[in-house]
Prior knowledge:
A hairpin with a 2-residue loop joins β3 (128-139) and β4. The protein has helices at 7-53, 66-70, 79-87, 108-111, 116-124; strands at residues 62-65, 89-102, 128-139, 142-152. By secondary structure, the chain is of the alpha+beta class. It has one domain (7-152).
Amino acid sequence: xxxxxxxxxxxxxxxxxxxxxxxxxxxxxxxxxxxxxxxxxxxxxxxxxxxxxxxxxxxxxxxxxxxxxxxxxxxxxxxxxxxxxxxxxxxxxxxxxxxxxxxxxxxxxxxxxxxxxxxxxxxxxxxxxxxxxxxxxxxxxxxxxxxxxxxxx
Length: 153
């Protein structure tokens, strides 16, 4: 008589193979989910960076498209890209966090370590001021904020 597998051995092998297959499918599904979340996160970070670099107080507390933020800065000639930018609508809000100044407003203790020539230069230096602004954007499924600086003239 020829040796062969019994029915119990075949069922056990099939059960082990199906458990391993289910585990591999779950791992694949989880990897695809995490990759899509990573892609969304990278896209959100790029959008926040773009909005933060082109912050405009005229748009505060409004819904604007990315095209509205960029049309004064760039000459966008690609119609498909322009249409895509116009479709990307975000709720845009700005809040001034703080106004920061640098320049001739140094007090006496700060100027003691400098020579008289440097003190005179510091006294004649223009005051540089800028606002620290929190720019928050929101749209369905995505929200975020970035801190940016805007010079005051």
